Amino acid sequence: MKIALFASGTGSNALKIIEHFRTVPSVSFVVLSNKEDAPVLPKVQALNIPTLTFNRKDFYENGKVKAFLADQSVDFIVLAGFLWLMPTDIVQEYPNKIINIHPALLPKFGGKGMYGMKVHEAVKQAQETTTGITIHYVNEKYDEGEVILQATCAVAPTDTPAMIAQKVQALEHEHFPKVVAKLISK
Ligand code: GRF
């Protein structure tokens, strides 16, 4: 079982997932990023995990990313802090085999441009009393694929966006590796 992790940020979720399967030799990883300086890259390279960085052309036009996934015999794709829309050809190549995590309870606070602290600031602004995470299948629209799991946490009136982010990240780290494990065992 080969899992491709798409990550363009710090990669804390990607690393939690990798760690979860450390003692499972049948599961291996490749990591892809559209940012050459993504902090996740040196971290996974230190674990001898192959990486690919790519640009928009490689993703949407010349087939380089798709070819890499095929070359590496990737079975399952996990988006963990990756913001670009998946191209149709990759979505079609991996039906129900691409999942994403969103740091809010979709359909609330989702869609293009809703990522990172912007999500938690919007949650604060809307005076929500609950927020959480959504793990969902990926289709050709932002944050609209079928929901696999949602988990919630309380938001106190005194919580800052940074405090909300911390609670949500704890939920991500707790649930994302388990959901991946469950789906790939199917
Ligand atoms: C997470 O909050 C995730 O929900 C979102 O991007 C963030 C990635 O964080 N899609 P990290 O790079 O895994 O720390």
Describe the structure in your own words.
By secondary structure, the chain is an alpha/beta fold. The chain folds into 2 domains: about 1-95, Formyl transferase, N-terminal domain (Rossmann fold, 3-Layer(aba) Sandwich), CATH 3.40.50; about 100-185, 3-Layer(aba) Sandwich (Rossmann fold), CATH 3.40.50. About 35% of the residues lie in helices and about 20% in strands. It has helices spanning about 10-20, 40-45, 55-60, 65-70, 90-95, 115-125, 160-185; strands spanning about 1-5, 30-35, 50-55, 75-80, 100, 130-135, 145-155. A 7-stranded mixed β-sheet has the order 3-2-1-4-5-6-7, sandwiched between helices. Strand 2 (about 30-35), helix 2 and strand 3 form a beta-alpha-beta unit. Helix 1 (about 10-20) packs parallel to helix 7 (about 160-185) and helix 6 crosses helix 7 (about 160-185). The N and C termini lie close together (about 10 Å). The model has no long low-confidence stretch (mean pLDDT about 95). 5-O-phosphono-beta-D-ribofuranosylamine (GRF) binds next to helix 1 and strand 5.
Task: Briefly say what this structure is.
With 186 residues, the chain is an alpha/beta fold.
**Share of residues in strands:** 15-25%
The shape, in one word, is globular
Which value, in Å, is the CA radius of gyration? 16 Å
Structural class: alpha/beta
CATH superfamily of the largest domain: Formyl transferase, N-terminal domain
Percentage of residues in helical conformation: 25-40%
Show unreliable segments: none
Q: What is the number of E strands?
A: 7
Bound molecules: 5-O-phosphono-beta-D-ribofuranosylamine
The total of helices stands at 7
Beginning-to-end CA distance, first to last residue: 12 Å
